[in-house]
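User: Fold this; tokens only.

Assistant: Input:
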Amino acid sequence: MSALLSSSPFSSIFAPSELTRFLLPTHSRLQLSSLTRHRSGFKLGTSRPLNLRCSSTMPLRDQSENPSCSQDSLFYSRAFWVTKSIIAWNVDAGEDECYLYASRKAGLCVADDEIQGHDVKTNLERTNYGLPQQVIEKFPHIRDYAAFEVPKTLDFQSLVKCQLAVGICNSDGKCASATGLQLPGILDELFSYTGPLGAVFATEAVSLYLWAPTAQAVQALIYKNPSEANPVEIVQLKELDGVWSAKGPRHWEGCYYVYEVSVYHPSTLRIEKCVSNDPYARGLSADGKRTLLVNLDSDDVKPEGWDNLQDEKPNLLSFSDVSIYELHVRDFSANDPTVPHEFQGGYLAFTLQDSAGVQHLKRLSSAGITHVHLLPTFQFAGVEDEKHKWKHMDIEKLKSFPPDSEEQQALITAIQDEDGYNWGYNPVLWGVPKGSYASNANGPCRIVEFRKMVQALNRIGLRVVLDVVYNHLHASGHFEDFSVLDKIVPGYFLRRNADGGIEHSTCVNNTASEHFMVERLILDDLKCWAVHYKIDGFRFDLMGHIMKRTMLKAKSLLNSLSTEKNSVDGSSIYIYGEGWDFGEVANNGRGINASQFNLFGAGIGSFNDRIRDALLGGSPFGHPLHQGFVTGLFLEPNGHELGDEANVAPMLTVSKDHIQVGMAANLKDFVLTNCDGQEVKGSEVLMHDGKPVGYASSPIETVNYVSAHDNETLFDIISLKTPKDISVEERCRMNHLATSVIALSQGIPFFHAGDEMLRSKSIDRDSYNSGDWFNRLDFSYNSNNWGVGLPPKEKNERNWPLIKPRLADPSYKPQKSHILAAVANFLNLMQIRYSSPLFRLRTANGIQERVRFHNTGPSWIPGLIVMSIEDGHQGVPGLSQLDPIYSYIVVIINPCPTDVSFANLALRAKSLQLHPVQMNSIDDVVKNSTYDASSGCFNVPARTTSVFVEPR
């Protein structure tokens, strides 16, 4: 669910480098056995929950005890109907005969060594030339399968509605092998469709369209309200080329409906009557079990001034100007006493101009933050829509326990699936706002209030990014309440393995964007959010599990939207995501996927895990005490064994190289001098596994971050990794130092909400389902939420021995003065970033020409990063002039526990001075930074980032 293989239902932001040693780590959304993911699941180094069952629709049976031709063999789908004329099967038929069997009533069975109960039995001819190239490109994972030709005379449209199997019969007629069929190939060939889907509203009628080519019958059950037991009307839909449709009266608007689909389901080997929502639902009932017939173009669901919102959106001249603040809707206001109780935790909290939270957002916006990234806001599982069903904990009771107690987490965990909290990486329906965030989950209220939220954020200068989770779905099968797509066309929308079981590498129920109608659904959904909700950006969860082709189409589609035709400027919609490469899609296993390296040149952003790991140390899946650049590596050892000094010192130099490549937008071709004194490109600086650090072609393709919703907060990680004997003031400076690297780097800076306030989750590594207690944000700045008990046992118990003494030590807890200073320092950083276009260069060439790193090579001051950015002068040949105020900038990052002096001949005789923002800062330490022009010598205080500028 948002940043990377973590331990919650998948959000992920864990990186390819992490995914290679993934080995079922923890992520943040859903969890598959030991693999968990916070929904972000793999998010940013992630951890998300798996609070759903990660069960496959294919029963797990011991094949070693079953002959290859048995009744159980029909539960598997090991053959692929890839085109109308070809079935692929990994079997050696020899001289035996291969047959296709079909039963409209799902009566196939294996008895007496033969397949019985079929309506159709037809011979398949094995070819000698293998699968055609176009099939291999579409299904690379079966490239070596045998190809069997299907007779052209068959009625294919009828056959796909049947139970299907293939079998090998030996010379005496006995069945030697049998299996079911996977149908996406033939469905794409015969039924790819670009016409209307969902509910379409005309002046006097409402039409319903459902793509369900394998269904034998479809009817719509119409209800007047969300809870009445009996439908007021049952409408039979008619089929044409796989699309079922019906036309009804306009007064259907405002009613609810569900589809009843009669369809063969491979999970049961039966024809099932599946009751489901419309995959193209735009509204829902409070229980999420019925689809609301709502017209998003109706004035009744538009806030005042909605149609003109495009004219009010904050300016965005270039994607290089983007900076992102990641925020959870409930976190924002659930604990804000300045928000009325009925608005707390919901959409409308963003509309209150005088609340503490909105005041904080206004400060961020004024300092330069451009986008608020909202964690999932579509209809997800894990939280009831109706608030009266939620369970609550006595806050005073929780406060009564010691800061290192097990009691808090035990009480929170006891109700964690029945309270109002979840990150939301458990998708049910992608195209409907989540009902639990609305004041009334029934009717169109959630639509209106969501729009009001977007409108309010735009009006305070913030664009809105949605976290979209197209890589997996919460449920599958024919009976699960939250299963939708797998009821409509079983076996099509979800990606399956060679046996026919659903792939779960993202956590559960991986979707298959390589299939035409899955890709179409994703594109249609994006367009709906962009046009009807005027969304300004999309963050793709586990984007690497989506095909590159789909992402390029998404970018092109969004870019084509215009103010004239759509009341949206699509050219200003920024898209980015988690480009991790793992699971069944790794190494292009299902086609060219949207992984970091594959997206080179696409203009789509991906999270840069390299700079995060170098700054903090290790990875989200390594030892929690492994130190990094800002947490004391080599400079202040914490006692964790990394080897002798001769081994640790090079680790710091390598980390520095990784950070410098990241500060140059992680460009593949950026040339710098590495720690060995060699000139190398970013792609020639390597990670521990030999993969390149630099992979981007332009600055907008790199999203730099040091923390996100997944894993521990920045302050918590620093509190874990630093020596126990340093002060809380020093940890606060490290927090600021890490943030400064992100804020002053080329590329897109990304910040986790609360890092600017020293946010703590009591060292919870995966808080996707840890309730308001562990996820609290305090915009009064009185508390950072440190020391509210040991974090939940499931994801954190193994680290409790490290966590407990830290939480118990009162010297670790920041005071209000520390939090206020952290907020002020963060605002200063953003003001500095936006004080000069030199921090936001738009091209790779511009970065290569203007950005230089000093203090490089083998003779260097340990840890110190010195970056200069040069501008041109009007009328002077060479660089063009971009900045009317400053002609030269020097950024010096000193992670050392002592002051550092650095002299460089190339920086002599300049008119450099400390940046005015830092000269006027409340941070007295940074004001002690100095520069001597005669010697080119800088003096920078301990744990400080100093910015020097040369005014024109």
